[in-house]
Design goal:
The protein is α/β, with parallel strands linked by helices and 210 residues long. It contains eight helices and eight strands; from the N terminus they run H-E-E-H-H-E-E-E-H-E-H-H-E-E-H-H. The chain has a six-stranded mixed beta sheet, with helices on both faces. The chain has a two-stranded antiparallel sheet with strand order 4-5. Strand 4 and strand 5 form a beta hairpin. It is globular. Uracil binds next to helix 3.
Length: 210
């Protein structure tokens, strides 16, 4: 059962302390089945903070964000768009893997996090934003976008364009661009076209910094 243990981030901008505290978070039920908390990674000096949905199977085992197939695609797209991943801070809206088992109980199948999990995890994302103070927040997919921009935000209407953050997070999100999640590119019927549009969104996001 979720409980309040470790659910509140400590009042610090030290990412190592935040990571360590998040490892004991019981703020939603996902901690029970996941291997570990997958906290964000990257430099506290990052000008761009990237937010995904939640760790997948590979990330859950490795304890690092975006190291599986979606991460590989993301790395390639970052490179093509002129971003060096080492200069970024990369995290997720939800920091535990949510999954169900297949019928044979073997494979772990990704489940989209619900609003309760997104809301429970949001204080950690806000704590990361407070620690990094990025110039731009790049939101990958609707879960990430809605976590910061609110549940009414429609990615299809605003992808690739600068959007204003709501007042409650405006000081932490000076500028935001949302695009699709890299997994959606992997699943797209025309993957090349979806990939090109994704890279174009990343380039457009990068231009807002200059
Ligand atoms: N998908 C995400 O949203 N985040 C990860 O870390 C991996 C896959």
């Amino acid at each position: 059962m979720p409980d309040s243990r470790g659910a509140e981030p400590p009042d610090t901008t030290d990412l190592d302390r935040l990571r360590s505290a998040a490892s004991g978070c019981h703020g939603c039920a996902l901690y029970q089945d996941a291997t570990q908390t997958v906290f964000g990674e990257g430099t506290p000096e990052a000008k761009i903070l990237v937010v995904g949905e939640q760790p997948g199977d590979k990330e859950d085992l490795a304890g690092e964000p975006f190291v599986g197939p979606a991460g590989k695609l993301l790395d390639r797209a970052f490179e093509e768009a002129g971003f060096d991943r080492r200069s970024l801070y990369v995290t997720n809206a939800v920091k535990h893997f949510k999954f169900k088992r297949d019928e044979r109980g073997k494979r772990r199948i990704h489940q989209k996090p619900g609003r309760t999990e997104v809301v429970a995890c949001r204080p950690w994302l806000l704590a990361e934003l407070r620690a990094v103070r990025p110039d731009l927040v790049l939101l990958l997919g609707a879960t990430a976008a809605q976590s910061l921009l609110g549940p009414k935000f429609r990615l299809t209407a605003h992808r690739g364009e600068p959007v204003d953050a709501p007042d409650d997070v405006a000081d932490l999100v000076p500028s935001a661009v949302a695009t699709v999640h890299p997994s959606a590119v992997l699943r797209a019927p025309d993957r090349d076209e979806a990939y090109a549009a994704f890279v174009a969104d990343l380039k457009a996001a990068g231009k807002t910094l200059k």
